[in-house]
Amino acid sequence: MYDFDRNGTMSFEEFLALNKFLQKVQSVFSTLERGRGFLSLEEVYEALIKLGFSLDSPAFYTVCESFDKSKKGMVHLDEFISLCIFVQSARNMFNSFDTSKQGRVSLDFNQFVYCTANCRI
């Protein structure tokens, strides 16, 4: 995700960018979890908005279902970090195909496979 030049290693600058992202994710989580150690789905939605991510309801609930290991609507820090890394990776991948910046892309099957394989965590 933060190997910007995709050379398989992380430069110091890339590491700093990743560290900054993770600190922001953890800070938003800590602000909303109120000592419980988890976020409700409503709080996850609020946290994603604070982090600059906007998902419609079907996408949001699908992502939450994928990362909420207990399937109880409680997302813990490790799950939230993984969820945010996935969403950031998906955004980066989408933006690389959205060269006209219109918010829409057209992919053939091979491009779709490439995108999904690169968004795994």
UniProtKB/TrEMBL annotation:
List the record's Gene Ontology CC terms alphabetically: cytoplasm
Q: Where is the signal peptide?
A: none
Q: Which SUPFAM superfamilies match?
A: EF-hand
Keywords linked to the UniProt accession: Calcium, Cytoplasm, Metal-binding, Repeat
Can you give the residue ranges of the EF-hand domain? 1-25
| Regions annotated as coiled coil | none
The protein's GO terms of the molecular function aspect are: calcium ion binding; calcium-dependent protein binding
Whether Cytoplasm counts among this entry's keywords is yes
Q: Kindly indicate whether the keyword Ion transport belongs to this entry.
A: no
Matching entries from Pfam families are given as: EF-hand_7
Compartmental location: Cytoplasm
The protein's name in its UniProt record: EF-hand domain-containing protein
UniProt source species: Setaria italica
